[in-house]
Design goal:
There is one protein chain. By secondary structure, the protein is α/β, with parallel strands linked by helices. It is built from 11 helices and 12 strands. The chain is about 35% helix and about 15% strand. Bound molecules: pyridoxal-5'-phosphate.
Length: about 350
């Protein structure tokens, strides 16, 4: 605290990202990065931009990138918003679409950035408990609210809510915005973008950080009705006119154009996820069914924190959340085959 601070800063509870260790040769399975690396075509497109043109500001509206994303999902560019990582897109959503009289709703076990944005923008919220199997029950979201947001697949559980049930939540809230945060949808889920033309209250966010291996570039986007997108445009142009730099715009566009590489990387992660899940079950873990690039698992005889610490001593980092209901779970990012081998060998020794 300092006398120089704006008073609101005293009350902020910032998000704590997963550790980005400085040490090399750790098996890093804690922040859901993609183990396979960006598309070589995306890398080439980015390299090409690095030169004299960096003197100049980037396109403030990312016109080419928006067109590419619009073509990919068969929507219009007016239905697409892009931002500096989907975290920034989410921030603009909280500011521009969630400040109403009633509290917004999100699952009690969910992305821990949501309550942080509530604190930043003074948005009231109500946590809706997941059921005993850590599933979202759509009927829980048919209650008065100022908006709804949930990840699908959910984080950190990995559980996926089928599209028909997503639609139930959207249809039950015609007067409020329902945001589906699809950071992990490319690892086996169906996107709710298919529904945006029928529901003016539906907004879908995605990121290039996970399935397209560009976490270091910071590119995310939202797709929905033009009126929702216009709200985000107004917020963005009152905050930062140039959120995406030239390198990010070029890399993101090329990543979307390299479908073959994208599919291969996602399929690789999915195959490894199935293998890791089975092996963990063989060690006695309870593994939630995952459609993400991580698994959420608990061992009935070991504390989550102890397992995390023991793995860490072997140079293997996984994520542990010291929170009600999930403190005995580990969230383990799916790595390369070699990284997963190291994880499983490490666990075998510990157990
Ligand atoms: C990783 C993640 C994001 C943020 O992605 P960025 O585009 O890297 O900011 C958003 N939502 C969820 C649920 C995530 O796991």
């Amino acid at each position: 605290m300092s006398k120089y601070w704006s008073p609101v800063v005293n009350d902020l509870v910032p998000y704590v990202p997963g550790e980005q260790p400085k040490l090399d040769n750790l098996v890093k399975l804690n922040t859901n990065e993609n183990p396979y690396g960006p598309s070589p075509k995306a890398l080439a497109a980015m390299a090409e931009v690095i030169g004299d043109s960096l003197r100049l500001y980037p396109d403030p509206e990312s016109v080419e990138l928006k067109q590419t994303i619009a073509d990919y999902y068969r929507v219009t560019p007016e239905q697409v918003f892009v931002g500096n990582g989907s975290d920034e897109v989410l921030a603009h959503i909280f500011f521009g679409l969630f400040q109403h009289e009633q509290p917004i709703l999100f699952p009690d076990i969910s992305y821990s950035f949501y309550p942080v944005y509530c604190g930043l923008y003074r948005v009231e919220s109500r946590a809706v408990p997941l059921n005993e199997q850590f599933e979202i029950d759509p009927s829980d979201y048919a209650q008065p609210n100022g908006g709804v947001i949930f990840p699908n697949p959910n984080a950190p559980t990995g559980r996926y809510l089928p599209l028909a049930q997503v639609e139930q939540i959207v249809a039950a809230n015609p007067d409020r915005v329902v945001v589906v945060d699809e950071a992990y949808v490319d690892f086996g889920g169906d996107t709710a973008i298919a529904l945006v033309d029928r529901y003016p209250n539906l907004l879908v966010t995605q990121t290039l950080s996970k399935s397209r291996s560009l976490a270091g570039m910071r590119v995310g986007f939202a797709i929905g009705d033009c009126a929702l997108i216009e709200a985000l445009q107004r917020v963005k142009n009152s905050f930062n006119s140039y959120p995406l730099d030239r390198v990010a715009q070029a890399g993101a566009k090329a990543a979307f154009e390299d479908e073959a590489y994208f599919r291969e990387a996602c399929d690789g992660v999915i195959a490894q996820r199935d293998r890791v899940s089975e092996a963990l079950e063989g060690f006695g873990f309870e593994v939630l069914p995952s459609k993400a690039n991580f698994v959420f698992a608990r061992h009935p005889e070991r504390r989550g924190e102890d397992l995390m610490t023991a793995l860490r001593a072997k140079g293997i980092i996984v994520r542990h959340f010291n929170k009600p209901r999930i403190s005995d779970y580990l969230r383990i990012t799916i790595g390369t085959q070699e990284q997963n081998d190291a994880l499983l060998a490490g666990l075998q020794e510990i157990l």
